[in-house]
Amino acid sequence: MSDHTDSTFPGDTVEVHADSDALVAAAAVRFVAVVVAAQAERGSASVVLTGGGTGIGLLERVRKSPGDIDWSRLDVFWGDERFVPAGDPERNDLQSRQALLDHVPVDPARVHPVAASDGEYPDPVEAAAEYSTVVQAYLAEHGAFDLHLLGMGGEGHVNSLFPHTDAVREKHELVVAVTDSPKPPPVRVTLTLPAIRRARHVVLVVAGAAKAEAVAAAVGGADPVDIPAAGATGIDSTTWLVDQEARTALR
Fold first, then answer.
1. What are the distances in angstroms from CA 122 to CA 84, 87, 154?
2. Is pLDDT of 228 > 70?
3. In terms of Cα–Cα distance, which of 102, 187, 73 is closest to 94?
4. Are 219 and 250 in contact (CB under 8 A)?
5. Distance between CA 158 and CA 143 in Å, rounded?
6. Residue 202 forms beta bridges with which residues?
7. Residue of 60, 71, 51 whose CA lies nearest to 24
8. What is the pLDDT of residue 251?
9. What pLDDT does residue 192 have?
10. Which DSSP symbol is given to 210?
C-alpha cells in the first residue's frame, strides 16, 4: 500500500501509512526534511525529541539515512524525561544517545538533556526550573523550536502531559515537574502545551489500534484537558503520522 495524505480531516494534516515500519520511515524522512530546511533558511535548527518505541525507532532510521543534516548546527531538546538517575535505561536521553546522538557529530554544547535525579538538581521542581531556563534562553534567541516530535499514549497523553492533571492545564510555564504520573515512573519533568506550541512544526507519530480512539478525538478537536494531544499544535504545521490501525476510528 502506498503512503498517502488524508485531507478529509480539517485542522491537521493526517498521513496514513501501511504499518509501523512505514510510519517510522516516514517520520525519519520528515525529521531530516525539517532540519535541513531550517538550516538552509536560518543557519541552524532545533529538534525536541520524544521517547518510546516509535520515537526511538525513528531516531535509528535517521542514523541510517541522515540526508544533508549538519549535525554541528543542531540543537537537541527533549519533550519530557523520567526523573531517574543518569545511567538508568528508562531515561529518554540515554535511549536517544544510543539510537542516534552517540553516532553523529553533534556539538555536545548544543545537546540539552533534563537533569537526572542524581545530578546537580535532585529535586524535580528545581530540575524543571533549570530546564525552563535553558528552553527560555533558546527561544528568546531563536523564536521557536523547528521540530517537536511527539508520541501519544492510548489515553491521549503527549510528553508527560496526562489527562485531567495540573501539567496539562498549565497555561504559562514552559516546563513543569510531574510527581504523580499515572504511568511509571511517577516523577518526571515535561514540556507543557505552551512549549509545544512554540514549535514551528509539530509531528505526532502514532501506531496501533489501541490509540485509534484518542487519535480521532484529538484530530476532531477534543478538549486538551481530556485528550492532551488535541492541544499539541505547531506554529506552521501540525502533522499526524499514523498507521492503518491507529486511523481506524477516524471518520
1. 9, 14, 30
2. yes
3. 102
4. yes
5. 22
6. 148, 238
7. 60
8. 66
9. 98
10. G
> Of all residues in the chain, what percent carry a pLDDT higher than 70?
95
Please list the residues that pair with 191 across neighbouring strands: 175
Residues recorded for the chain: 251
Kindly tell me if the per-residue pLDDT of 70 is higher than 50: yes
**Residue 188, class by beta-carbon neighbours within 10 Å (0-12 exposed, 13-18 middle, 19+ buried)?**
buried
- Tell me the H-state helices in the chain: 20-42, 52-64, 92-99, 124-142, 166-169, 193-196, 212-219
Mean pLDDT of the chain: 94
What letter represents residue 242's amino acid? V
Residue 15 amino acid letter: E
The runs of H, that is alpha helices, within 50-191 are 52-64, 92-99, 124-142, 166-169
Long-range contacts of 20-26 (CB under 8 A, 24+ apart): 20/54, 20/57, 20/207, 20/208, 20/243, 22/243, 23/54, 23/205, 23/207, 23/241, 23/242, 23/243, 24/54, 24/57, 24/58, 24/61, 24/205, 25/61, 26/241
Scan for cell 478529509, then name that residue.
8
Place of cell 484529538: 218
Q: What is the pLDDT of residue 211?
A: 96
Residue 206 in 3-state DSSP?
strand
pLDDT tens digits along 3-57: 444 433 334 699 999 999 999 999 999 999 999 999 999 999 999 999 999 999 9
Compute the distance between CA of residue 242 and CA of residue 249 in angstroms, rounded to an integer: 12
Q: Which of 232, 53, 95, 217 is nearest to 158 (CA)?
A: 232
* Cell numbers placing 147: 521540530
- The alpha carbon of 182 is separated from its chain's Cα centroid by a whole number of angstroms, namely 19
